[in-house]
């Protein structure tokens, strides 16, 4: 006899909360971006982060998603903006330590066929 698989509304993902103090917060953000080939930084409960993660998982990349509390959103965005030439809006996708962009930029590069070579150059894909 077959048994039903229980349905879970939430799937466990690699999610870490950023620390509360801004000094540690700023150093952790830059460290996280430099340590991961692909990373998604977004606000807590952001559905666009989920969409970007599912798109990248469909290509064979398993990116970590770091959720930022609403209290620290401006501090994290300011810190990430100092490392890039443009302002950072969440969700922010970093590939190879550089800002790729948000959902629109990731989707546009995927549709145009540019996303897979970018991921291969960053070391996130081996095929």
From TrEMBL:
**Coiled-coil annotated residue ranges, if any:** none
What family is this?
Answer: Belongs to the glutaredoxin family. CC-type subfamily.
Give the Pfam families listed for this entry. Answer: Glutaredoxin
Indicate yes or no for the key word Cytoplasm.
yes
Q: Which UniProt keywords apply?
A: Cytoplasm, Redox-active center
Q: Where in the cell is it found?
A: Cytoplasm
Domain Glutaredoxin, chain residue ranges per copy:
38-99
* The name this protein goes by in its record: Glutaredoxin-C1 protein
Q: Which InterPro entries match?
A: GlrX-like_pln_2, Glutaredoxin, Thioredoxin-like_sf
> What's the source species for this entry?
Medicago truncatula (Barrel medic)
GO cellular component, alphabetical, reads: cytoplasm
């Amino acid at each position: 006899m077959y048994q039903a698989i229980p349905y879970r509304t939430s799937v466990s993902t690699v999610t870490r909360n950023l620390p509360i103090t801004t000094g540690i917060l700023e150093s952790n953000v830059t460290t996280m971006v430099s340590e991961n080939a692909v990373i998604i930084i977004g606000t807590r409960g952001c559905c666009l982060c989920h969409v970007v993660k599912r798109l990248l998982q469909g290509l064979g990349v398993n990116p970590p998603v770091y959720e930022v509390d609403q209290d620290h959103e401006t501090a994290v965005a300011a810190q990430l903006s100092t490392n890039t030439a443009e302002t950072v809006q969440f969700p922010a996708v970093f590939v190879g330590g550089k800002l790729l962009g948000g959902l629109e930029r990731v989707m546009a590069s995927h549709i145009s066929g540019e996303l897979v070579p970018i991921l291969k150059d960053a070391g996130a894909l081996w095929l």
